Amino acid sequence: MASLTLSHVGKLYDDGTRAVADLSIAIEDGELLVLVGPSGCGKTTALRMVAGLETITEGEIRIGERVVNNVAPRDRDVAMVFQSYALYPHLSVRENIAFGLKLRKTPKEELNRRVDEAARMLGLSEHLDRKPRNLSGGQRQRVAMGRAVVRQPQAFLMDEPLSNLDAKLRVQMRAEIGRLQRDLKVTTIYVTHDQTEAMTLGDRVAVMKTGVLQQIAPPQELYDRPTNLFVAGFIGSPAMNFLGARLRQTDDGGWHLELGTHRLDVPADVMAARPGLAAYRDAEVIVGIRPEDVEDAAVVGRGDGRSLPAVADLVEPLGADVIAYLTVDVPRPSGHEHLAELARDAGDSPLMPEGTTSMLVARLSPRSAVGGATGGGYRIVVTVDTERLHFFDPESGSAIWEG
Ligand code: ATP
Q: What b/e readout covers 290-302, taking b as 16+ CB neighbours within 10 angstroms?
């Protein structure tokens, strides 16, 4: 096992497509790093460069201390697991798992021992003589994993390995991959576009957008301290809400946000935690509010400087909570490129005109009466947990923290 280091790695395809730019990531020995981002952000290209399946235009990749830029894929000692399992249909499970070892002329006894051990780890012992077509999707994915595990490589490289499985199986296999990786402690890069997969699996998560690394951090830090609008909007489901606002200070020194004709107070400790905010006095900011930080005022109480009137357009009662799609008469923030990219990824039109109303998605308590409302147009007052507001610069899209 080994660390994996990418230093200023870039990829320019022959047709001029810039797929990856100046990517630097140091993955520790035994770490599971998830590379996540919307389709086309360059994550597969990055993984294929580590595997040696794609040449590198700029930079350096090291596996352990060894620079592998010009090392052939088979000599890199990494094992890939793809979304398509790429199993040999005419070979049994045992033969499929053993294939790589056989090519390397591993002695028979050792080969059998390693295959049996991998099969046991993956719960495949009873299926070793079956052909792939007689296996379920989850079992096939396990065979593909088995093929990687049995080689005892320096690193696993996984490219959306679960995307062919149905939702329930995906959750189960996700947990299995996590457990296996922790047991084996093999350095792993795991590529996915699914932010839930990223959050639940990764020791750290690297978020990419249009070939550029946006932030790399442990999952909770990514969630609590997103570095910019893109990461804030990409991580979390339902996604963070963004509203246009102006920051004001009153004569008594208190701070608040002007959202159209509404007001949200900014608590003193939020100002203290973000010393950079004070410089935005009287200026525009983009305010981020997570859905779970919005509650029905009828449940938690209405607060002066914490509540907004809203109209519920659509309500999804999920049992444990209610997802409400609300309209508030607060201006939509200006069309920052991060927001356009997020809209594209969500399948919305990125050209949605700036307007005088915004959508606010809320994760409400099931005790909220809105859960029983049928049809749109239900009027509600929501209370925002202002201690948990996020702030972004409307020009750069960066989170506002330091001065
Ligand atoms: P997805 O999740 O859709 O696979 P991704 O994040 O893995 O996306 P890549 O497949 O790495 O993204 O692609 C990054 C960019 O490079 C995209 O714009 C893509 O169209 C482009 N690209 C990928 N392969 C090639 C190629 N062989 N030649 C030219 N451009 C390519």
A: bbebbbbbbebee
For the cut 80, the answer to whether the pLDDT of residue 352 exceeds it is: no
263's enclosing H/E stretch is: strand 262-266
Does residue 38's CB lie within 6 angstroms of at least one atom of ligand 1?
A: no
Residue 393 sits at the vertex; the CA angle it makes with 388 and 397, to the nearest 5 degrees, is 100
Q: How far is the CA of 11 from the centre of ligand 1 (A)?
A: 10
Cβ burial of 103 (10 Å; 0-12, 13-18, 19+) is: exposed
CA 52 to chain centre: 25
**Per-residue confidence band for 347, with pLDDT thresholds at 50, 70 and 90:** confident
Distance 171 CA to ligand 1 centre (A): 26
* pLDDT for residue 83 is more than 90: no
Tokens of 116: 């049996």
- For residue 386, report the phi and psi dihedrals to the nearest 5 degrees: -70, -15
Cα–Cα distance, 245 to 287 (Å, whole number): 7
Q: Can you tell me the mean pLDDT for 217-227?
A: 97
- Out of 13, 56, 193, 213, give the residue to mutate to test ligand 1, the one with the largest number of ligand atoms within 8 Å of its CB: 13
Average pLDDT over residues 140-147: 90
Contacts of 353 (CB under 8 A, 6+ apart): none
Mutual angle of helices 137-149 and 167-184, in 10-degree steps: 20
Closest CA to 146 of 105, 107, 118: 118
Q: Please give the distance, rounded to the nearest whole angstrom, from the Cα atom of residue 19 to the centre of ligand 1.
A: 6
Q: Can you tell me the distance from the alpha carbon of 261 to that of 51, in angstroms, rounded to the nearest whole number?
A: 55
Whole-number Å distance between alpha carbons of 308 and 299: 14
Which atom of ligand 1 is least distant from the CA of 193? Answer: 2
